[in-house]
Amino acid sequence: MNELRDDVAINRALLTNPALDSGAIAVRGTVFHVFREAGDHDVTILRDGRVTGRFTVAVQPEGAVPQVNVDLAGLAADADRSGNVTGHYAIREGGVMGFAVGLGVGRYAVVIGHTAGGGSRTVLDSRGQLPAGDLFAVTLITAGTYRATNLASQALLPITVSMPGRGEPYSPARPTLVRAGDHGFDPAAAHILAGQSIVLLAETPARFLVAPSGL
Amino acid sequence: MADLTIAVSEAVCAKTLEVVVANFGLDVADGANFGGFIAGYDGRLVLKGGTLDLRDDGTVRLRELDARWDKLDFTLGVTMPEVCFGGGFVDLPLGGTVHLPGIDVFSGDPSVSVTVDLAPLVKHELSLVASPLIQHFDPATTAIGKHCQQLHTALDIDDTKQQWRVFCDPQTIDLDPFDFADTVGDLFEQALTDAVDALLPRGPLHDLILAAIGSVADLLRTLLDIPDDISEWLSDLFNVSFGVFNLILQFVADFFGKCVSFFQLDDPFPMFPKTSDLAEVMVPIQHLTATVSDVELVVTADIGAVS
After folding, report:
1. Which of residues 146-165 of A touch B (CB under 8 A)?
2. Which of A197, B31, B179, B306 is the most buried (most CB within 10 A)?
3. Does A197 touch chain B if contact means CB atoms closer than 8 Å?
4. In the CATH hierarchy, which fold is given to the domain comprising A21-125?
5. What global pTM score does this model have?
6. How far apart are CA A126 and CA A46, in angstroms?
7. Residue B212 above 90 pLDDT?
């Protein structure tokens, strides 16, 4: 009596629940870097150690947007054979660039160098530790218990993820901020609904790993 | 006094109606994008039954014709709205706000469509009151649509000859509009709900998507902009948005008033056929009139100069 036609692809990365590592950015994990100094910054995107994109961010004292989010998988697709990405990014001093992955199974890293005085100084290499002030956001889809670890301090944060109650108001766009400092995480535990995000703020240099408790 | 008078009984007219009705067929198909959804239909309308009355007010009345759909495939397609997890804004302790990008659940064209054959679920009743309309047909100058040509072939109406033709020109047409029962609305809503539900991945993500969008039924009502009654919405779609109702009315008017005549008279008329020793005698027909009484259709004419 009826016929079904669908032309849809499910974001398959949402069907799995691997650990999320700020050093290997994947779907459901986003690194936010805060640009504290004005001037040009060279951004290099790597996937499995191979350069997949390069571009420059001009950080301006004023007159630019406070935040830009980039999709690392999309950038890699748009880059030319030598990895250069056309397009110009400008961000206000103190502004944020978010590095996310929209689709796929790739794991990415970001290296940012501040070019000044004829040299370049690395201000972020996400494969190591995030500098103080940077953030790592994870979106947890599957209900259960998780553990966030700051590998730099071995501090632990238990996270409980619940399914939204039937008939109760539910918005996935309600992130929860957790600070990660010298004395561990604050608050010491977090509770969110499935599909929402935990945002870990590095108050000291940090490397974050968020995994289901069983892993 | 007329030179020629032909009386056609009500029974003969009724028999003609049977043949005409048997050859009625309206093929309709259309589709449109209504923004949040697409809809289309493909159907064939036929007539069955019916009675004919000749009336003493000079009109012909066709009653209780069943207008039924041989097929009425109705397709409805919806595009899923963007469903994403995460996202939102977070305020930083030292000032400033960070915007989290959401994660899209679907990529590509997340659409789903359902086709339901509504033919067994909808029927109309047709009645009309018509007046005899006389037209002179000249194959050299009178245009005939392709559909009418096919009908004429089926009805043995000769389009190669000049003729006087008597049509039943509808003055009023009474047709039931589309009026789907509640059960039809329920059936359709369930089919579409099942189709959308099947689009969603199984497992915990399925439940979470449902939590994010409310429910599939709520989502559909939003996408289709249906207030309460889906069967009423469906009826309006056919009657008003697609204008199928008016399309049928126009077709019926053209079918009876312009396409299929109830009576034809060759002009010139073969008064005496050709024999072995005499040529055929043809007489021109002039001043044709047609009147209706409650028992017969009377056609009168004058014979012009014999050539």
Report:
1. 163-164
2. A197
3. yes
4. Immunoglobulin-like (2.60.40)
5. 0.69
6. 10
7. no
